[in-house]
Amino acid sequence: MTHRKTRLLTWIFTILILTTLQGCGFQLRGEVNALPPSVSPIYIHGLAKFDPFSKDLKQILKEAKVQVTEDRAAAKTALQIFNQSRDRRVLAVDNRGKVVEYEIHHALEFSLIAADGSKLVPAQTVGTQYTYENPETGVLGKQQEENLRGRDVRLDLARRIVTRLHEQLR
Question: Which GO terms describe its biological process (predicted)?
């Protein structure tokens, strides 16, 4: 095969793969689908005002073109967050019995309620997990890494909620 035919086949194959991925609903991580205008403004119930997850959820909702309100009476919908859990399980220990690796699970339930009290999206669970290494050295760096990982997990959970809302409200 000539170089020209190889390039042509590569382009055709690439376009075919991209078309297939788009057709099945694949999207890059980090992208948030816009929610319908009927959801906005939304009131978030079940989170403390200064909870870090509340801040991250509001950010993701804004990316989804949703206005968040602090006034329940002014909201068209209420996003209820409940049964949050965070569990840590030991995965590995060293020869002295010191924990060197954990598995962290985060989960919560949510539902979307209309202003009239009807359920737009029934209660469902979203969750995520990751592993966390706990070496003896580099304690300060590991604390910073754990804080960053915590933010990534909160943003991931918020994106999962918005994705579920998008799928069930369209």
Answer: Gram-negative-bacterium-type cell outer membrane assembly; lipopolysaccharide transport
pTM: 0.73
Helix extents (H) in 24-138: 52-63
Radius of gyration, alpha carbons of the chain:
21
Work out the percent of the chain whose per-residue pLDDT is above 90: 44
pLDDT at 148 over 80: no
Find out whether 61 and 68 touch, Cβ atoms under 8 Å: yes
Domains of the chain: 32-169 (3.30.160.150)
DSSP label at 96?
Answer: T
Distances 108 to 20, 34, 53, 96, 105 between C-alpha atoms, Å: 32, 22, 11, 35, 10
Q: Which residue, 143, 152, 147, 154, is CA-closest to 51?
A: 154
